[in-house]
Amino acid sequence: YEEKCFVGFMAVRIYEEISYLFFLAIDPEHRSGGYDSRALKLLKEIYPWKQQVVDFEKLDNAAENNEQRKKRRSFYLRNGYKETGKFVSYFGVQYEIFCTEDNFALASFQGMMKGLKIPGLVPEYFEK
């Protein structure tokens, strides 16, 4: 909220040493106002001792939304996230995993994903 005005929300799961940003949404009327970057900064302030982890659709030139994927990837790079070289696939979509630390805790990420009780969720991990 910005004062009493709804701006957006994020869904975050805390597990062992990671803070996993599952979803970040900013109201269309408030986009380009820096709220998305402010949300990431807030997340880092709330959980400074956690690795900030996010996954997003892997770049794919054949995908209709590849430009959106490029923008999303660039956004996270600008906000301090780094390539981990790790990817995960679930529900038929491939995702790239970014982290704010150099030593991405893959085992913790896998444990967190395993603990999600979502029917049909069977993550498969791979590298470039």
Largest sheet: number of strands, sense, barrel closure: 6 strands, mixed
Extended strand count:
6
Q: Given the structure, what is the number of helices?
A: 3
Radius of gyration: 15 Å
Q: Give the ordered list of helices and strands.
A: EEHEHEEHE
Whole-number mean pLDDT: 95
- Specify the overall morphology: globular
Into which percentage range does the β-strand content fall?
Answer: 25-35%
Helicity level: 25-40%
What structural category characterises the helix and strand content?
A: alpha+beta
Low-confidence stretches: none
Q: If strands are numbered along the chain, what order do they take across the biggest sheet?
A: 1-2-3-5-4-6
Head-to-tail CA distance between termini: 38 Å
